[in-house]
User: Which sequence fits this backbone?
């Protein structure tokens, strides 16, 4: 085994060695623990303000059991935790900040290998990004989804059920008292959102990338097997240190291709596009927006799960979880079978015999739930650097549509006007929302799935074409074009759209076109003024350096990795 990095601290003699060991001994650690055991950092996003990760102290204890068993020395440390539902203005504003916390916490401390405890949406990419920039042996462990929501005899999915009930309350189909009652019925156990929202999607991405032990994505948070997996993860990271199996050997181009295909097969969130590109950027793997369309869009969705289908993550687990899906992809010849995973095995060894127990939930590749359902990348004069749509969650009749634009300059204007009965809008219109991209919001909020106007809902219409530079929750659905790049606040063409313009969406042709003469657009551009941007603190740093959505919305100076070497090494 190569010399342990932690020995650069604990293995020293004299004053420095005293300093590094003595203060740690105030926790009661015996002196022999500092003599050359692999030190395993457990990177914990526990927080009572991140309810999806509130059980992570218990999970960390299970990881520690495994680390001790394997002869390691576990040390748990906290990092910035991003709770999707509580953090304003949007958790995404802080994904890159949290990744810097993770990167510097790993690099600056006497750690040989890392276990990443991830759950709520942004906690997964932020930890993977930070760890990738350090490039130590690293293993992921997700916190697991909540049990299925149950309300009035039916399943009730995180987020997805909320969007549906919100419309029902607005149209009078549901009483406000029932809506309040549903609060306790939707989220009734520890864990993260149990639809195929961003948290579940990213947990699946962790597993598809080979960054976790098999089965990580779907085991419910409350299932005893989640704790068993945590213990096995603790055992395994010690071995990974001994094998010097660094994260850059797992996060290869082949691994990202597997993740893109898996995302199509599970009907995963559009947010995965941004996060995977950002993670790849940190580890130096070339990955571009068009890879998602080229590799994933023709693939079928195999999993019948909300928001694209009807089941929930608990059902997905009982049906076999991601290994059953990856087996289907492998047998269809669209899986990089040799991609190395954290257990040291090629991906195919992990999933080749994976069983499927319920074909209603996980379909065969040859008899899919939805065909051609992976994320599509659109281009045209409205999004020269690309925009994305999730066809599996869209209405088929709207995938080719030309309509009159109804423009909202900001999300506040949208909220103020959308239910105004005098608003000139009907179901054939195209709703356009500006200034909600990485710089414009700032932070690229999940507001792209704009609510439909009440007067349209009352006709029984449930979907309209919506276009923005925003993201949308992975639990959301509809014919929603997102991530238009460059964004309006950066002077992208979206900034030039006016109400009354005609817009063409043609998903089969991958087209998003503003039907306005170039001369007219040039005149509008000459009058356009950029919005005032924040002038202090994190917001200032963020807006000055954030890249556009097609580049993963990482900060420009964070792309790449500098490894685990500490710049200066003495006190
Ligand atoms: Fe945390 Fe959905 S709010 S995973």
Assistant:
């Amino acid at each position: 085994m190569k010399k342990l990095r932690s020995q650069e601290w604990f293995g020293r003699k004299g004053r420095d060695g005293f300093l590094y060991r003595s203060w740690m001994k105030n926790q009661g650690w015996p002196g022999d623990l500092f003599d050359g055991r692999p030190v395993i950092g457990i990177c914990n996003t526990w927080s009572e303000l991140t309810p999806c990760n509130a059980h992570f102290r218990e999970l960390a204890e299970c990881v520690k059991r495994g680390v001790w068993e394997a002869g390691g020395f576990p040390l748990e440390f906290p990092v910035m935790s991003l709770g999707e539902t509580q953090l304003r203005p949007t958790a995404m504003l802080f994904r890159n900040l949290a990744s810097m916390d993770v990167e510097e916490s790993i690099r600056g401390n006497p750690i040989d290998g890392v276990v990443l405890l991830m759950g709520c949406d942004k906690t997964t990419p932020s930890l993977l990004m930070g760890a990738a920039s350090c490039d130590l042996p690293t293993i992921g462990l997700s916190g697991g989804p909540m049990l299925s929501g149950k309300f009035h005899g039916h399943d009730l999915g995180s987020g997805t059920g909320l969007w549906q009930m919100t419309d029902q309350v607005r149209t009078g189909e549901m009483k406000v008292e029932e809506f309040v009652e549903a609060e306790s019925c939707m989220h009734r156990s520890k864990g993260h959102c149990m639809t195929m929202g961003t948290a579940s999607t990213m947990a699946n991405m962790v597993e598809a990338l080979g960054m976790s032990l098999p089965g990580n994505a779907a085991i419910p948070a409350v299932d005893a097997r989640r704790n068993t997996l945590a213990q096995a993860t603790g055992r395994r990271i010690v071995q990974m240190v001994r094998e010097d199996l660094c994260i850059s050997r797992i996060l290869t181009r082949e691994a990202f291709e597997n993740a893109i295909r898996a995302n199509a097969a599970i009907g995963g969130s559009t947010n995965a596009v941004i996060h995977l590109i950002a993670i790849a950027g940190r580890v130096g793997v070339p990955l571009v927006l068009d890879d998602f369309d080229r590799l994933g869009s023709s693939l079928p969705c195999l999993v019948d799960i909300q928001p694209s289908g009807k089941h929930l993550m608990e059902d997905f687990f009982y049906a076999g979880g991601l290994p059953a899906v990856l087996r289907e992809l492998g047998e269809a010849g669209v899986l990089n079978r040799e991609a190395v995973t954290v257990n040291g095995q090629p991906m195919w060894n992990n999933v080749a015999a994976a069983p499927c127990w319920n074909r209603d939930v996980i379909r065969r590749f040859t008899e899919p739930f939805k065909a051609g359902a992976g994320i599509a990348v659109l281009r045209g004069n409205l999004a020269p650097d690309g925009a994305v749509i999730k066809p599996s969650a869209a209405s088929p009749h709207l995938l080719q549509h030309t309509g009159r634009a109804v423009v909202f300059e900001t999300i506040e204007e949208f909220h103020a006007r959308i239910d105004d009965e005098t608003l000139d809008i009907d179901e054939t219109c195209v709703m356009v929302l500006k200034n909600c991209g990485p710089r414009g919001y700032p932070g690229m909020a999940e507001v792209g799935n704009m609510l439909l106007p009440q007067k349209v809902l009352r006709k029984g219409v449930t979907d309209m074409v919506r276009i923005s530079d925003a993201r949308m929750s992975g639990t959301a659905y509809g014919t929603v074009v997102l991530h238009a790049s460059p964004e309006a606040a950066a002077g992208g063409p979206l900034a030039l759209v006016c109400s009354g313009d005609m817009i063409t969406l043609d998903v089969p042709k991958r087209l998003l076109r503003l039907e306005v003469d170039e001369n007219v657009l040039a005149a509008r551009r000459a009058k356009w003024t950029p919005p005032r941007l924040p002038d202090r603190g994190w917001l200032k740093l963020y807006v000055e350096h954030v890249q556009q959505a097609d580049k993963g919305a990482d900060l420009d100076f964070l792309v790449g990795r500098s490894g685990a070497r500490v710049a200066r090494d003495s006190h």
Q: What stands out?
A: The chain has 20 helices and 14 strands. The longest strand covers residues 400-408. The longest helix spans residues 224-243. The mean pLDDT is 96.
